[in-house]
Amino acid sequence: MNERRYTKGPCPFPECGSSDAFTTYTDGVGHCFSCGKSKKVNTNMDSYEPTTFTELTKFSDISSYRSYPVTSRGISQEVIDHFGIKMSVTDTGIPEAHFYPYTKHGITVAYKERKLPKEFKTHGDFKDCELFGQSSCVAGKHRLVITEGELDACAVAQSMLSTSKKIWNVVSIPSASNLRGLLEQRDWINSFKEIVLCFDQDDAGQKAQDAAAKMFSAGKVRIARLQEKDPCEVLIKHGPKSLNDAIFTAQVWSPAGIVTGEAVWEQFKSRQNVESVPYPDCMSGLNEKLKGIRYGEITLFTSGTGSGKSTVIKEIVLDLLAKTSDKVGLISLEESVGDTAEKFISMQLKRNIMDPPPTSEEELRRGYEAVFGDERLVLLDHQGSVGDSSLIDKIEYMALMGCKYLVLDHITIAVSEGSEGLSGNEAVDKVMSDLLKVVKKHNVWLGLISHLRKAQGGKSFEEGNIASIDDIKGSGSIKQISFDIIAFSRNLVAESESERNTIKFKVLKSRFTGLTGPAGSSTYNNKTTRLVSSGGFDEYFTV
């Protein structure tokens, strides 16, 4: 840096006032080491080192830059001003860089810089930013157009302005490889009646388009088909009307549904090669009947009150975290996040942390880090309220976050929140249908807990009676839609402690293997809070 130093003097920025902190370099760039600002200055030096102005750009300076129409793309000054785009030019007036503003609550907090022709860098804090152009939109209106580039958004806005004299709602994601902003703004985007995706027509753009379309409410998404690779090319080669027509004639998106010929064979082969994740060793009997758990399926777990449903589910969750690299989403509607964390930490440490002697903070933290440290276990914080009509939407949000395994505990409460004025079996049918759509749409596994009807005569389920498929509480859609159904029981009033702590499993349905019947047992260890396999198959079901 010292080799480039030319001279030191007073800072030209009046708000600074330093008398000697501004240093001018031989490349014509000046930098103030007091206020941190930079600017180009005139020098008479013959030598010129190719250091660009944008390398010394400060976020605080960008808002003061001017802007100009992008004539090479057919984009007017009015459109540039609509989005608040800033630009820098060389000393000779040649365009040097574009600065696209990104906002948070309508305030610009970051800029994406495009050094022409196509070199990118960022300025400011992009965390939790809104989409490009979002601060200029009005939520809840009829149509929102989403592109995969800032200049493409400008091209769409230009087509609107040229044909209807008004810029309607249009936003952009940073690139086809960055859909995170759509997920973070999903509720805002869903507020529009119609969502038009106007992505590039290349492979990357079409792949991103399909992924984006799955994020939003069914029936809202439309796909704009373009004559050229992207909106900018359409605007330049075919004019604003052609691009505007592509937006207004966009077709409703729907996933591929009709399969014939060779595609049937491909799906058959895919099904044959589907991977199964075995159940934990403490439930090894289930693997004999079910061969594990698989994406695209719903597994129903059902038992009497107090039979160990929460423990069984948490054993499965811990095992999935250990065996896979995927995220796991847990929706526990009867537990707070704190309660759930406490039980997982106890299970990870293999000791009841409520029992004496007290567990040290260091040990508790070790258990926490082992379960939650890599952020692969995602919990729903329902804050004591499960009457929110968006529960199914939140479950889908978890799938969109990357959770490949989901657990909902339990369906009875989910029905009460998702009934939308329906009652009885209709409410159950709707929730089960919605859950199946999430599972198939995002190719995830869903573990679902259901309660049982009150036993009619004989021993109760809490006395160790094992349920049949007709004992499942709710409409027939629960057992029809579920791929696998696992019933288990525990005799809470047995004289023997060993029997009181034994959970017996039975497979009532398996669509994958067709195998049903007794599936072994597990024993709960009060000291470790964990289950261990106790073997035993038919002997538990002879009564």
The fourth-level CATH homologous superfamily of the largest domain is P-loop containing nucleotide triphosphate hydrolases
Q: Biggest sheet, strands in spatial order?
A: 16-15-17-18-14-19-20-21-22
Strand content bin: 15-25%
- Low-confidence parts lasting 5 or more residues at pLDDT below 50? 1-5, 43-56, 537-543
The level 1 CATH classification of the largest domain is Alpha Beta
Overall number of strands: 22
- N/C terminus separation: 87 Å
The helix count comes to: 18
* Shape, per Cα inertia axes: elongated
* Structural class by sheet pairing and helices: alpha/beta
Return the domain count. 3
Largest sheet: 9 strands, mixed
Note the topology.
Elements (H helix, E strand, L loop, with lengths): L4 E5 L12 E4 L3 E4 L5 E3 L18 H4 L14 H7 L2 E4 L5 E10 L2 E9 L3 E6 L18 E5 L2 H15 L5 E3 L7 H5 L1 H5 L3 E5 L4 H11 L7 E3 L7 H8 L1 H9 L2 E2 L9 H11 L11 H7 L7 E5 L6 H15 L3 E6 L4 H13 L11 H12 L4 E3 L11 H11 L1 E7 L1 H8 L6 H18 L2 E6 L26 H5 L2 E6 L7 H4 L1 E9 L6 E9 L4 E6 L8
Parallel strand pairs: 9-10, 9-11, 11-12, 14-18, 14-19, 15-16, 15-17, 17-18
Antiparallel strand pairs: 1-2, 2-3, 3-4, 5-6, 6-7, 7-8, 12-13, 19-20, 20-21, 21-22
